[in-house]
Amino acid sequence: MIDGVQPLGLGAWRLLLIGPHTSEDLLRRLQERVGCDRVEYSDEVPPPKARQMMGACKVDLAVLQPIGQYVDTLPTKLFEYMSLGVPAVAADYPQYRSVIEGVGCGLVVDPTDARAIGEAIGELATHPELAREMGERGKAAAASHFNWGSEEKRLLAVYAQLLGNGTTGEW
Fold first, then answer.
1. pLDDT band at 147 (very low <50, low <70, confident <90, very high)
2. Minimal CB count within 10 Å: which of 70, 99, 129, 159?
3. Can you give the three-state secondary structure of the chain, one letter per residue?
4. Which residues contact 25 (CB under 8 A, 6 or more apart)?
């Protein structure tokens, strides 16, 4: 992400990293990168504050590397971004692509290609109306489809099927 943002020349734009890190070595390595002066790092942030910080961003990133379950599952953060009305630049994995392109709420890129990440951010930065429209589509999809209200019925139906009672009655 740092390598993708560094050459963009987006004026006051900064990369905001939110959440705990796994080692002090990570912070040291981040500080050694070219462009680290354009990175703000917030360690553990209470969920309401993290949500406020994400919502204030112009583009949110979900470019998880192709490691383990990241390729086959959808990150919660993608749906949080959608609910906040912020367009996403996300890894080009089949499930991510299905949501992003199906809704039209962002761009998908090779998460191992810093240049592709930067170009996608640049596309949204230089086309604010496109970014706004993508954010609005994401927010509408989160409100109408990607939420607990719609998923609850599906989950209860799966439970009922597993229990063999064929109903979704009270537990």
1. confident
2. 129
3. CHHHHHHHCCCCCCEEEECCCCCHHHHHHHHCCCCHHHEEEECCCCHHHHHHHHHCCCCEEECCCCCHHHHCCCCHHHHHHHHHCCCEEEECCHHHHHHHHHHCCEEEECCCCHHHHHHHHHHHHHCHHHHHHHHHHHHHHHHHCCCHHHHHHHHHHHHHHHHCCCCCCCC
4. none
88-93 long-range CB contacts below 8 Å, 24 or more apart?
Answer: 88/59, 88/60, 88/61, 88/62, 88/138, 89/59, 89/60, 89/61, 89/62, 89/63, 89/117, 89/120, 89/121, 89/124, 90/61, 90/62, 90/63, 91/62, 91/63, 91/64, 91/65, 91/66, 93/66
The whole-number average pLDDT for the span 52-70 is 91
Domains and CATH numbers, the chain: 2-146 (3.40.50.2000)
Q: Check residue 10 and give its pLDDT.
A: 66
Percent of the chain with pLDDT over 90: 43
